[in-house]
Amino acid sequence: MASYAKPENALKRAEELINVGQKQDALQALHDLITSKKHRAWQKPLERIMFKYVELCVDLRRGRFAKDGLIQYRIICQQVNVSSLEEVIKHFMQLSTEKAEQARSQAQALEEALDVDDLEADKRPEDLMLSFVSGEKGKDRSDRELVTPWFKFLWETYRTVLEILRNNSKLEALYAMTAHRAFQFCKQYKRTTEFRRLCEIIRNHLANLNKYRDQRDRPDLSAPESLQLYLDTRFEQLKIATELELWQEAFRSVEDIHGLMCLVKKTPKPSLMVVYYAKLSEIFWISSSHLYHAYAWFKLFNLQKSFNKNLSQKDLQLIASSVVLAALSVAPYDQRRGASHLELENVKERNFRMANLIGFNLDPKLERGEALSRASLLSELVAKGVLSCATQEVKDLFKLLEHDFLPLDLALKVQPLLAKISKVGGKLSSASSVPEVQLSQYVPDLEKLATLRLLQQVSQVYQTMRIECLSEKIPFYEFSVVEKISVDAVKHNFVAMKVDHMKGVVLFGNLVIESDSLRDHLTILAESLNKARTMIYPPAKRASKLGEVLPSLADIVDKEHKRLLARKSIIEKRKEEQERQLLEIERIEESNRLQKQKKTEEAEKKRLQDEIEQRRASRIIEEIKEKEYEEAKSMVTEKLPLKLAKIIGDKMITKEEVMELALSEQLRERQEMEKKLQKLAKTMDYLERAKREESAPLIEAAFQQRLVEERVLHEREQQLEIELSQQRHEGDLKEKNRLSRMLDYKMIFQERVMSRRQEEFDRRRVEREEQLNRMIQARKQEREALRKQIFYVRSEEERLRKLHEEEEARKREEAERRKKEEAELKAKLDEIAEKQRQRERELEEKARLEKEAMLGRSTDAFSRSSEPPSGTHLSETAPAAAAAAAAANGPATAAPPQSSGKYVPRFRRQSAEGSGQAPPPEADRWGGRQDDRDRPSQPGDRWRSDDRRPSSFGSSGPRSTWSSSRNSARGSER
């Protein structure tokens, strides 16, 4: 990791790397600067560095680098200059959007600019092969190669920005803007899967915001500005969900808005509530929940009437008509009849929940199942004047369907009103938030309601009616459809009727259905048997029966009271156990979340460490390569001329020539093998031809014999078939005469069944085609995901294999280099040891020679010590002895003559003081005085030289000389 004294230096270095085409290295340099601990204080150059950093991230599509850099920059400028972070994020999103739009325009240009050289030529073989292998067109491939990567990066950009700004109170507006842009992205490109994920992300952000309330920069939802931003985001989410027709996600968005309103306990603006109820009514209509749809329209009408001052009378009349028709479209009977207790509880809970969503204040005394009903809604519409605001056709229709009793003319009078109502509708001019109102959508349900009312009124007047007459009274449907409607009405006890197709009539009245009689047959049998037993065996004490029952009544009441108390305690215990289990589950989920977060942080640290190690390893490999390259260059410059001379002199063959000879030898062998195979194939052809010539007449004879046998067999079977056909024909004629009497009835029944089955077949075929299309899309997505997973696994294995091979090569090169260095070090050590041994031998030889010389000189001096001393003799022998000593010691131990006055031993100075002579003048240790060197020898010098001689024959003379020679030898050895 490079270290920069100033941030500007890193920016300059990045620009230099970009100019030479190394954008990845430039991005890494800026990333190291941003994540370093040295530059944690905000500076103005850091903003320019972040601009360049996000530009590089967008160019290289590195979303992870962008996220790391933005998180680090948020830490730097959160408390100092948060507007800088806002500018950087806006620049980042703008660049990502521009790149995605540019990629899409390029893909369209490639598709439009398709150029074909020859219009009459067919497709190329490679194009056909590619189309059969890939199974997709050119546009699909261009989108997958150009557009999809940039759309993925743009989606990752939105997710990154939302994750960074999710708990930042100073950038709430930017968070809302990013969410709106992400919604528009999903809407523009029909990205339904990404829209669901985006809604889940925003939902999780709000949940975490409410869960962790002790964060420092947490947005405050009680503030009006923050609440308005969050509500605007949820309402935009609701609009996009309805436009994409994701009704389940739209309903969840409605629940999010309601939960947000309950959280802050504040009602939003009326304009937003109009959008809320408009989308809620659309969702309920799509889900066929007509009762909730009508209630939502009723709330929408109240809002428009109370707060919209620009609402015209025509628009108010249209909305009121829509409310009344929506209420009339609700089924007039209770659909909960015959349901189980669990289903009834679920329905009650759902009604209570929908009432809260719609915004009705329920009476706590009423049951939850009776909270919302058709009767109560119609009574409210009449009481609050909604019906009076509707059009005259709607009023007349309401009067006919709810108040008038016209058993025979109801449907005929309703039909023209429905024809007029179906033409009413359009866009509201003074209520822009309300969707386009079309009253024609209620016509099918109103026709069904009119049919049910007519059946109900006819059943009160008539007991029997012909099917043809009843079909004439109901012009909306055929009788088969009326029969289906009546079955549902009879099931829910709205009307009592029975159809007799044999007689062609419809029976009305309190008809007992077989299933109702079979339901209580065991009870009726038990009661009858009990009566018979009582008649056969009458009770003995009939009067005392009441007296026997009354004493035990108090015990029964007491036991029942205790049982209820025990049941209450059991219920309380179960509630406590359930609450404890819920708390335990929340604690486990929290611990799992913390562990997952810890694992994520550890994985991130490990990834950063691995990246550092990889960069370090790559740098080491580069250094090794550079070093090897330099060594190769030096070896080429040093050894190439010698090799050329040797090749020219010895006529050596090169490696390329060896490869050429091997290839030529292989080519020659291959040619010989091909010749042998051709000769063998020719021989096989001759043999096969000879065998076929011999077998041809035999095959022909067998074929002729087979023809004769098959002709006889054919004639026999043909005669047998003729006889059987005659017999079957006679039997069929008899059967035809017998069945011709019922042909007319059969044709009538067949036409009826075929028409019904044709309708059922068409409906099921449409459903089957839709199901097949969904299955094809799902399988296509699964195959695409599987292909991507296989490609990722293969690329990851290839990358790991390459890394393993590079590591093995590096280890081999390191081992070879280590062996080479050890060999060189061993050779150097051997050479040094050999020189050391040579020097020791020389020193031992010198010491031996010196010892021999010293021993010979000491015996000579001892023999001459008995002669009388003479000045001339002493003066002549002293220099000779000094020269011999110098020759014995060698150059390393040779001392200058005493005449130079460099050094005088202590015993000589003492002998000179004892003889009464003055000591020589003090001289320099490393060189004598110049006047002493130039002065001629005096008699005092001879005596000084003479004084030195006897000292060499003392007890310490030879020993000191030997020790001095040894010391001088050791010094030279060192």
Protein described:
This protein is mainly α and 974 residues long. It is built from 32 helices and 5 strands. Strand 4 and strand 5 form a beta hairpin. Helix 27 (743-864) packs antiparallel against helix 32 (957-973). The chain is extended and about 170 Å long.
Q: List the strand order in the largest sheet.
A: 3-5-4
Largest sheet: 3 strands, antiparallel
Percent helix: over 70%
Strand content: under 5%
How many beta strands in the DSSP annotation? Answer: 5
Give the overall form: extended
Mean of residue pLDDT values: 75
| Rg from alpha-carbon coordinates | 57 Å
The count of helical stretches stands at 32
Distance between the termini: 48 Å
Low-pLDDT runs of 5+ residues are 111-123, 132-139, 361-369, 542-546, 639-653, 865-902, 911-974
Computed structural class: mainly alpha
Organism: Trema orientale
Family: Belongs to the eIF-3 subunit A family.
Protein name: Eukaryotic translation initiation factor 3 subunit A
Pfam families: eIF3a_PCI_TPR-like, PCI
Give the SSE layout.
Blueprint: H1 7-19, H2 23-35, H3 44-60, H4 63-77, H5 82-112, H6 125-134, H7 138-164, H8 172-188, H9 192-211, H10 224-243, H11 247-264, H12 270-286, H13 290-307, H14 313-328, H15 341-358, H16 374-383, H17 386-389, H18 392-402, H19 410-422, E1 425-426, E2 437-438, H20 443-461, E3 464-466, H21 467-473, H22 479-491, E4 497-500, E5 505-508, H23 514-519, H24 521-536, H25 545-650, H26 655-739, H27 743-864, H28 871-893, H29 906-914, H30 930-934, H31 939-952, H32 957-973
Antiparallel strand pairs: 1-2, 3-5, 4-5
Helix pairs in contact: 1-2, 1-3, 2-3, 3-4, 3-5, 4-5, 4-7, 5-7, 7-8, 7-9, 8-9, 8-10, 10-11, 10-12, 11-12, 12-13, 13-14, 14-16, 18-19, 19-20, 20-22, 27-28, 27-32, 28-31, 29-31
Biased composition (Basic and acidic residues): 806-854, 922-950
GO cellular component, one term: eukaryotic translation initiation factor 3 complex, eIF3e
Keywords: Coiled coil, Cytoplasm, Initiation factor, Proteasome, Protein biosynthesis, RNA-binding
